[in-house]
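Q: My labmate handed me this sequence with no annotations at all. I'd like to see what the chain might look like in three dimensions before we decide whether it's worth expressing. Could you predict it?
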Amino acid sequence: MWIVGGAIYPFLSEVTSSVDLLNIIFIRSVGAAAILFLAVALTMPGSLKLIRFDKRLITLGVTGLIFSPICSGAVAWASSKEPGAVIALIYSILPAIAVVYAALHRRLPTRNSVIGVVIATLSVAFLIGAPSESVSAIGIFVAFLSVIAWFIGTQIWINFEPGYPILLATAIQVSISAVAAGILKIFISTPSIKSEDVINFNMIFLIAALAAQYWAYMGMADRVSPELLTSFAFINPLVAGAIGYFIFQQEVSVVQVIAGVILLIGVFIVVREDLKKNSQTKRI
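A: Here is what I predict for the chain of 284 residues:
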């Protein structure tokens, strides 16, 4: 999930230069839903009988709309204005938000987890402070709104268990997102979707990445600590920066490399602390 999530941003920046934003959301949602339902049909075909039009679908509907088109739309729009690595950096505030939220609800994280988050967050500040390309306030603001939307969607998912197997629940959720994007296309004038908009490596990767990332993230949501769950946001900028450098010829400064190393140290502390905490819980 860490690697796939980070790879999305530079590819998304490339796609937004030639494909309409709403079309991107629609294509990705439909493609990801198809992949996930195919996986359901192959691995647990009997689970399709569990689908009911009841209150469980409300949770999936709300989270589906928050993650896409709201969150995905904000990310896609921001990616059309800013380098993909910069958008990935904005998502690095997720762990800090998760720690503060947990503390407000008296679920205090361990001291070492907080230290790890602080170290990683400070390194991200250096990364954001030394971008290789120009950034705009509106692009950063929209990316920040998408982070808040993602966090809210995650909390709804965790606190209101959908009651379906994770793979099926994720497939339903993404399908609802696809329907919402399709309805928006009816009322909003957008260019026609061309075959080359779909059948190209960048878009195919984004479709597969959406399916894989959602399934992995939702599966982990209530199984690990908030610090570890959101730690993907720390790795994303490193992956996005590496792909931007090696594939899309984006520049990387010495300050960014040093900050990236420090960031990894912070993530290592968070992961080690979570594994230690889980090990102690199992002994008890």
